[in-house]
Amino acid sequence: MMSQVLSEQALGVRAFAALLRAHASSTRRLNAQLSADHGLTISDYEVLLRLSRAPERRMRRVDLAEEVLLTASGITRLLDGLERSGLVDRGSCDGDRRVVYAVLTEAGRDKLRTASATHLVQVDELFSERLDEEELERVAELLGKLGDGDGADTACAPDD
Amino acid sequence: MMSQVLSEQALGVRAFAALLRAHASSTRRLNAQLSADHGLTISDYEVLLRLSRAPERRMRRVDLAEEVLLTASGITRLLDGLERSGLVDRGSCDGDRRVVYAVLTEAGRDKLRTASATHLVQVDELFSERLDEEELERVAELLGKLGDGDGADTACAPDD
DNA sequence: TCGCTACTATTGACTACGCAAGCAACTATA
DNA sequence: TATAGTTGCTTGCGTAGTCAATAGTAGCGA
Known about the structure:
The structure is a homodimer.
Chain A: H1 2-38, H2 42-53, E1 58-60, H3 61-68, H4 72-84, E2 88-92, E3 100-104, H5 106-128, H6 133-146
Antiparallel strand pairs in A: 1-3, 2-3
Helix pairs in contact in A: 1-5, 2-5, 3-4
The structure holds a DNA duplex.
């Protein structure tokens, strides 16, 4: 009776295994490239990117955390690093003194621009190497359904 | 001219972003469940699983590392934990004294069996909740192409 | 047999997170 | 206003994983 259940489960379980492998393999490669070329992790990049498209290039830390799927403490530490590198600044919020904005600096914008130039090419190389256009579209769509609830905009290039 | 390049890249880049979100969201949830219910991480589970299906329920550490996409040192530390918990044992290899087998113990088999009972259900719940059968098959296939080269057998249930 | 290179495994130092706990500031309720 | 509950952020501590360096073993060619 267990094996009955198991065979029904095989599909989801197989999909998960494939997800684990695809993620490990692609992030290892892209993270290595991004950090060698620019000293950034993928999460760093994602944060800079979100900030660059936010109004006034700033966001509350909670919101940022939610968008890049980190916890509150994760975002604090990540931003510590970006602040030390001068890519992000802190800004206070009139009207609610609990919140501390993360604000993209000029240096941060520059960094994002130069990092994008190589990173986006590398991402696309990796994926186009293995899937054709139709497949890429489909996999993005299906993975979107597996993401956390609100399928936020997931485009990955800075606006300008 | 940059924007030209960017629009061509959008597909792979979007797929990658979706992969990151889908992975973070599903592993966080499943890891939490697996560790709450059984004190195992997903990697622990994967290792126990591979061992359970290997001849004589044992594998060289290098091979294990490659299968679960960890580095050599990563496997050493992971196995340290499983050894401390008595789920895995060390075995030496006549003929090549460099290699140390990781051997699944009886306790390890039991653990894997009981963990599977809940874990597989949870994995499947998560995925079936969001994708139908045809979609699951398709996403597993596409993700398979993104995995590291040799698309090893990725089934996720113990044999017995 | 001696060295040379390749491979397996481990260790130390480090990073990137997560969780739980805590503080400070806001909101609501009375 | 007091009091209670909630939210935003930070901090201490623990864990999982990486990389670089090391040691032991294997196997080869001179």
